[in-house]
Amino acid sequence: MTPSGPSIPGPSISGPSTPGPPPGHRPDLDEAVETWSRMNDASLLRSVAAVILGFVALTLGSVLTGRLLLSLFGVEPGTAPGVDFIFTSLGVRLAVTVLAGFLAAWAAPRAPRLHAGVLAAILVFFSLASLAGLSASGDPYGPAWYPIAMLVIGPVGVLIGGVLRARRS
Description:
Layout: H1 27-38, H2 41-73, H3 83-107, H4 112-137, H5 145-168
């Protein structure tokens, strides 16, 4: 016997001898919570601002270049645009969307391609809404494939811009 009393065999009160994760530890959830808690309000606002910057650049670029092309090619309301206008418009649309994706990725605090992807998803939503409006009006502008080509070129261009920015960093 020891001075403190009899020795009783059994589990140790201090716990297991091998260290392990605490009870209830969930690595994926714990890591996500830790990442979220490290983010400060400024970086979240900067992420939102990055996507907004890309969207504003896309909107202004599309409207301004669209009006410029309409006047340069002399396309009047109610007249069918020519083939040269249509392909120039598609090329300019691609350039504007690449620039918008690049700007969104450039302004992003981290994950530039993700921010470009969010902008591309927003663009898909608005493009589908526009396509639905065109088909509901029954008055197509140009050939039937043109709105679909615009729907594809827009998000692809934004993603290309995001990738180009990510590669530059």
